[in-house]
Structures are given as structure tokens and as C-alpha cells.
């Protein structure tokens, strides 16, 4: 499975006008489908939603800047490990991210877009998990 970076960018462009609705939907989906992860998050998610939106924008902006992207993801992985995130939490987050993007992308969402986002999330999660594991080892 490979990622078509132009599809990542164009689908994110389709999602962007929805702004904070995107992150609200993401957390609702995540907690509804994975209530066991809710305790890892603050009671009030306003700041967390803003951080997630900023991180998604930074991710898409740096898709081709491997060094910056890797550094960003490693930092996120170390921080998330400090919050108690474990490798087994990442598939749930990925499923909620894909569901959210699909929901807001509308006609821009295709099987190829989903394949690209799934591939990108695989890199994101493996990089973050490895960085988090380095903290707890």
C-alpha cells in the first residue's frame, strides 16, 4: 500500500472548511467506539481539538519534508507515551481519523484516498509508537 501525496493534500483541502467540526467529530467517534481511551484525555477537549487540527495541518504541509515530519512525529510520540498512550491505542485513533476524514471529504473521498490516508497513518503511528517505546524503555 502506497500513499499518493496529492490525494492526501486534495482530500485535506476538502475537509479544511469544516474546521473544528472535524476534530469534534473525531473525538466523538473515538470515544463512542473506544471508551477505554477516554481517560487518557482531558475532560475539556477545546485545547486538544485545536492541537489536533494544527498537527493535521502541519502533517499535510510537511508530507514531502521527511526530516521535519519525522521529528514532529517523534516528539508527538514521546509526549503521547507520557500521557499513557500505548501501541494498541493507535489503531483506534487511525480508524477514527479515517472515518472523520471520509465523513467530511464528501465526493473527494475515494478508495484511492482511503488507501493513501491508511498508508500515511501507518507511517505516522509506527513512528510515534517507536518514539514512545524509546521513552518507556
UniProtKB/TrEMBL annotation:
It comes from Actinacidiphila bryophytorum. Keywords: Dioxygenase, Heme, Iron, Metal-binding, Oxidoreductase, Oxygen transport, Transport. The keyword Cell wall biogenesis/degradation does not apply. This is Flavohemoprotein (Hemoglobin-like protein) (Flavohemoglobin) (Nitric oxide dioxygenase). GO terms for molecular function: FAD binding; heme binding; metal ion binding; nitric oxide dioxygenase NAD(P)H activity; oxygen binding; oxygen carrier activity. It is an enzyme of class 1 (oxidoreductase). Residues 1-133 form the Globin domain. One of its GO terms (biological process) is nitric oxide catabolic process. It holds the Pfam family Globin. Its EC number is 1.14.12.17. Belongs to the globin family.
Amino acid at each position: 500500500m502506497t500513499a499518493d501525496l496529492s490525494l492526501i493534500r486534495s482530500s485535506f483541502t476538502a475537509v479544511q472548511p469544516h474546521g473544528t467540526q472535524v476534530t469534534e467529530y473525531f473525538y466523538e467517534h473515538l470515544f463512542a467506539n473506544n471508551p477505554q481511551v477516554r481517560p487518557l484525555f482531558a475532560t475539556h477537549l477545546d485545547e486538544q481539538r485545536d492541537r489536533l487540527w494544527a498537527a493535521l495541518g502541519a502533517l499535510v504541509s510537511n508530507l514531502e519534508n521527511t526530516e521535519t515530519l519525522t521529528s514532529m512525529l517523534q516528539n508527538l510520540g514521546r509526549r503521547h507515551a507520557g500521557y499513557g498512550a500505548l501501541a494498541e491505542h493507535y489503531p483506534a485513533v487511525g480508524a477514527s481519523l479515517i472515518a472523520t476524514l471520509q465523513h467530511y471529504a464528501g465526493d473527494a473521498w475515494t478508495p484511492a484516498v482511503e488507501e493513501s490516508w491508511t498508508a500515511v497513518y501507518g507511517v505516522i503511528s509506527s513512528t510515534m509508537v517507536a518514539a514512545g517505546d524509546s521513552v518507556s524503555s
